[in-house]
Amino acid sequence: MAKYISQGVFALERPVYIESRSSVVGRKEGEGPLGKCFDMVVEDSHFGRQTWEQAESQFQLEAVSIAVRKAGLMKEDIDVILSGDLINQCIGSTYGLRELEIPFLGIYGACSTFAEGMLTAALLNDSGAVKRSAAVTSSHFSTAERQFRTPLSYGGQRTPTSQWTCTASGAVILSDKGDVRIVGGCVGKITDMGITDITNMGSAMAPAAAGTIQRYLTATGTTPEDYDLIVTGDLGIVGSKLVKALLTEQNIDIHAQHRDCGKMIFDNETQDTHCGGSGCGCSASVLCGHFLPMMERGEISNMLFAATGALMSPMSLQQGESIPSIAHLVHLRKEQKC
Amino acid sequence: MAKYISQGVFALERPVYIESRSSVVGRKEGEGPLGKCFDMVVEDSHFGRQTWEQAESQFQLEAVSIAVRKAGLMKEDIDVILSGDLINQCIGSTYGLRELEIPFLGIYGACSTFAEGMLTAALLNDSGAVKRSAAVTSSHFSTAERQFRTPLSYGGQRTPTSQWTCTASGAVILSDKGDVRIVGGCVGKITDMGITDITNMGSAMAPAAAGTIQRYLTATGTTPEDYDLIVTGDLGIVGSKLVKALLTEQNIDIHAQHRDCGKMIFDNETQDTHCGGSGCGCSASVLCGHFLPMMERGEISNMLFAATGALMSPMSLQQGESIPSIAHLVHLRKEQKC
After folding, report:
1. Of the four listed, A22, A75, A135, B28, which is most buried by Cβ atoms within 10 Å?
2. ipTM above 0.85, yes or no
3. What is the CA B235 to chain-centroid distance, rounded?
4. Which of B102, B110, B126 shows the shortest C-beta gap to A127?
């Protein structure tokens, strides 16, 4: 039983915990400041497969396999798995998870996909329909660049506001076992402030993040001080400034609590990533590789995870449309279960 | 509270009803055998917009608006809406629903999307996290043809096993009010029998439908005779034969109960649609325009709705992959609420 708080905002009443989590990243992410946090760093961008799309599928399969193994489970123990990715028709997910034969719900939230998957999975557990669910997502620099921007071999110049799509995957398994509890969430609303610059996604997504964080704080009657951290997905350097400015205008100051996975995964000085990392796998791998272990170790005990996604396509931009964005929020709390 | 039955199979215990439903179709669908069933037939394939993609968005927006209006609701009364479609990055949904400002969960199940949305939405209601949810999806002949096959202006020859993507949308609103109850469901497993012919989607999807129907019947201890109808999404003429043959091999005979939305929406003799209709909007509009009204009128009282989706992309096929498929099942029962 979940508790209805307001439109799209809820608290879980049944115990839903993160039983297991995993992160698998590419070489560049492994060379970044969080490199030692991840379960696996894959040096080969093809991950032993023929194409980049197949490689991305392999990242997802590996992430789920590690999470299952770490919990001492079999794949048959998972009642449902939620996944999606950036590639057209989400083939990173469908081909990656095909061989697992786990009941599958495909989702699409662009780079917000991991938060969307976690909150939906948590509600399925909470309903009692499933005992154990999983959420996973991935992104791959090479699949995303050629689909959304230009073929890699063109060597296109990147603008200062651009972000670097992470080659990464993260997975969680949710059940009634674990240390970190999902206590609530907020389903995002599609937000479009008219940004049309595909190389400035942080600015397009920041209003969605600000809106979702504000909705959750207001609905739950909490303030930023009630949380150790308020983490956004991949707003990057520009978007992070913007989300804080937008919230400050609403008298909500998150400067002390705010972290952004996109800013953290690369060292901009040495890795030439401009505004930071992006892609579904960015926030998924940083949450699973960095923040969840921090909670498990007791370094933080209460955090909001708000992953953002830009919901355009190359075709919608070619047709002159602006970039609709969304942010979904998951509220996590360290809560040792007896 | 939902009741766990087996992996991916559940029964709802809280009352979750279809409070409202709507269907909006294009001219060709309106000229078909079910033409008089739909809430709206749109003669203009651009629906007054500049591009086909924008037109598809308009179909979704119109379908949701009609469903909201028929129930005497405001859009603010919907706590969460689930939607997805076939266009890359699901822009039919994201741009279509953008202006509604309803908390949004993007889903992707190809032509199974409507069943996926209904069963997930029903579980969100059941959990108590939302009081009223909606599910919607769409497809458009012209957006799908140029994305998945060839530009329309090529005038490409269609093979005998091909299906015609419907220009259509269907929407449901779920709450504790209504006549038709969602009593259970089954989350599909990704199934791939090695079919690589993109013009024979019925054959690719039939094994997924057979698997899901068998799983639900087995888990619930029911037989086809317990249902008035067992409806598949858009297997078309070839896929419909195949699903019945596959189930017969398992000693499950659904010949008397089986209907297929893809076979029903067009008249193959006069409309030159080869194996029938397809697309997310096909089963959504036929369920909402034809089968749900039959239940409301008391002509049938117990039915299974199993929509199928083919989870490939043009790129995965170019890379030599086969077509993974899925089928999600929703169990509907007429149950007059006091």
Report:
1. A135
2. yes
3. 11
4. B126
